[in-house]
Write a structure and sequence with these properties.
- The chain contains 26 helices and 17 strands.
- With 631 residues, it is an alpha+beta fold.
- Strands 2-3-1-9-8-10 form a 6-stranded antiparallel beta sheet. It has a 6-stranded antiparallel beta sheet with strand order 4-5-6-7-11-12, covered by helices on one side.
Length: 631
């Protein structure tokens, strides 16, 4: 895991190395073990190294044999040894054991088609001196981040936005359409960022820059086939085989590997199989809140730790931690992001960094194998239209704790049409009209934040559950990946996601929803292959997804803090939000004593607006971390 950055001046202006040094310094946390530069007239790039593979010879940039092609690279290619053997047969010579050198020679051999051969996570930049061509590329699902600034005179790119902002030509200014998107979905579904001049390279895309100009090209598309015609027993056997193989390949490292561990099936399954192959007692890391059983899954994590003979590290997160760290977390995220889990993940990764450089996570298991109630809601809609007996059977199998979310996604679209795409709507159109100031609304009256979700849902011949799968793989999961990457790399930790192995992705796209939700059970396949492997108590735990007790904290320990930030004179003077509406929202939240799904949604809204205001102060006002590149 590393960080990359670079500049390509189209006007032939030579690269100022000091500018590259500033960009590299902004992402020092991504690679504290080494720094390297490449400069060739009007092109230059930088690399920060976190040493994980080939500790002695793996420094970057890396060159081909005659130094005419050079790469800076961030990520891991788990099948690189297989590709390397093929390249050797084709006459390529290697001087390191790194996967980055394999990526470079694969590009030499197959060009951009080499992207389809890689099984892993990556973001890279390759420069061809002869044709003065630059390629920057990102992996299939967007596990590794990559951003760029592009105008008529220059291209600036980096693993993180804060690095791009070190270039004096890039001015930090809010993209108000991205802000509208975020207040709608608590996410930005396309390539926009909170910075109007900076774009996120989308997953499965590359940007090519040469004498013909700059163009962004998609090299892979998610294809839902559902054509696997095998029995349930064969399906389970194949799934387990693929997951075991993936976890084993994700243990590839010359430094110790650990695992995040909650009380859920995905992280527990990964930790279980990792413990069988890692060759030492696995370090596991669990976050919790001292707010009762609902926010504390240590009981389940401890059972797993005992079963697999692992070492457990527990991290308690408190309101004091929130106030102490939230500004730094927003800084490292570069922009507000999905959910409320960034700060807890930051603190758990902080603890993990004392023991390991690499951690395995369970990300992707819910999205690929129907772990969210929205999948069940979509499937029920399908059954209602096509199989009423199947609908009745599955209705009977709904668990009590699933009911609120299933009702939200199944029935709310009739009240709030925006919910029909299967994504959580933070502020619907009616409430956005109250949230934003009259001046702001007038300026962006015709903008539709739903256009990306509508484009995904408008694909023909897809069922309701297919559309949900696509929405979550294309929008929700990439946002989780970026959050995981940023808070991990803030602590120089590489996070790996075994559920997102290429073969597992292809497998998941071939399995019909009825199998994933067999017996009306969320994530049926994962639960079934882990039966008699994981402790039985895990099966009694309802799905939580690392919930945070912010609904309680915002009424108590954090009440003064959120009022001070969100209703401040600074916030009011921006002229973007209706502060009176926000104050009324805070008053309504704090007047309630309940801790329901409604309160959780309310806390999400407050948290999101809080991070937006902190983002303004950090990146636009530059009141925080203005000159601090070590944060």
């Amino acid at each position: 895991m590393c960080g990359i950055a670079g500049v390509y001046n189209f006007d032939s202006k030579e690269i100022d190395k000091s500018a590259l040094v500033r960009m590299s310094g902004a992402i020092k946390h991504r690679g504290p073990d080494g720094e390297g530069f490449y400069i060739n007239l009007n092109f230059g790039m930088a690399h920060r190294r976190l040493s994980i593979i080939d500790l002695e010879k793996g420094s970057q940039p890396i060159y081909n044999e005659d130094k005419s092609v050079v790469i800076v690279y961030n990520g891991e290619i788990y099948n690189h040894k297989i590709i390397k053997d093929e390249l050797k047969l084709r006459g390529h010579n290697f001087r390191t054991e790194t996967d980055s050198e394999v990526v470079l020679h694969a590009y030499e051999e197959w060009g951009v088609d080499s992207l389809l051969r890689f099984n892993g996570m990556f973001a890279y930049a390759i420069w061809e001196e002869k044709d003065r061509r630059l390629i920057i590329a990102r992996d299939r699902l967007g596990i590794k981040p990559l951003y760029y600034y592009l105008d008529d005179q220059t291209l600036v790119f980096s693993s993180e936005i804060k690095s791009i902002l070190r270039d004096s030509r890039v001015v930090a200014k809010v993209d108000c359409k991205a802000l509208i998107d975020y207040t709608t979905f608590q996410n930005i579904l396309d390539g926009k960022t909170f910075f109007n001049a900076i774009t996120k390279l989308l997953p499965a895309h590359y940007l090519m820059c040469d004498k013909d100009g700059a163009r962004v090209i998609k090299y892979w598309e998610i294809s839902i086939k559902k054509n696997m015609d095998i029995s349930m027993g064969e399906t389970l056997a194949l799934y387990e085989k693929l997951l075991v193989s993936s976890v084993k390949s994700h243990l590839m490292s010359d430094v110790p590997v650990g695992s995040y561990l909650s009380g859920g099936f995905d992280s527990a399954s990964v930790a279980y199989f990792a413990s069988k192959d890692v060759g030492y007692r696995l370090n596991t890391f669990t976050g919790y809140f001292n707010e009762g059983d609902r926010y504390d899954e240590r009981r389940y994590a401890r059972e797993v730790v005992h079963q697999i003979n692992a070492i457990q590290h527990e991290v308690m997160i408190t309101p004091k931690d929130f106030i102490e760290w939230i500004e730094k977390v927003v800084y490292h995220l570069d922009e507000p992001t999905i959910g409320t889990g960034a700060l807890p993940h930051f603190l758990v990764s902080q603890r993990a960094s004392r023991h390991v450089k690499v951690v395995l996570t369970g990300h992707g298991g819910d999205e690929l194998f129907a772990g969210y109630p929205v999948y069940k809601a979509a499937y029920l809609r399908e059954l209602f239209k096509e199989d009423i007996l199947g609908f009745i059977k599955n209705i009977k199998g709904i668990k009590r704790d699933e009911i609120p979310r299933i009702l939200y996604y199944a029935l709310f679209p009739f009240i709030v049409p925006e919910v029909k795409h299967g994504l959580f709507i933070m502020f619907d159109r009616r409430n956005r009209e109250k949230l934003f100031s009259a001046q702001f609304l007038k300026q962006y009256k015709g903008y539709n934040p739903l256009q990306t979700a509508e484009k995904i849902s408008d694909i023909k011949n897809l069922t309701d559950s297919d559309k949900v799968l696509l929405q979550y793989l294309k929008t929700y999961l990439p946002a989780l990946f970026i959050q995981e990457d940023k808070v991990g790399m803030a602590n120089s930790i590489e996070a790996r996601v075994p559920f997102c192995d290429n073969e597992l992705i292809d497998f998941a796209l071939m399995i019909p929803i009825r199998n994933k939700l067999n017996n009306s059970t969320l994530k049926y396949l994962t639960k079934e292959i882990m039966r008699n492997k994981l402790p039985s108590v895990i099966y009694k735990n309802s799905k939580k997804g690392f919930p945070t007790p912010l609904a309680r904290w915002f009424r108590n320990e954090l009440r003064e803090y959120v009022y001070d930030i969100l209703t401040s004179k600074i916030a009011q003077e921006r002229g973007i939000f209706n502060i009176k509406y926000i104050r009324n929202m805070l008053d309504a939240h704090c007047s309630r004593k309940t801790d329901t799904l409604w309160d959780y949604a309310s806390a999400n809204r407050i948290y999101s607006l809080l991070t937006v205001e902190l983002w303004f102060r950090i990146f636009i006002d530059k009141r925080i971390y203005e000159k601090d590149t070590s944060c």
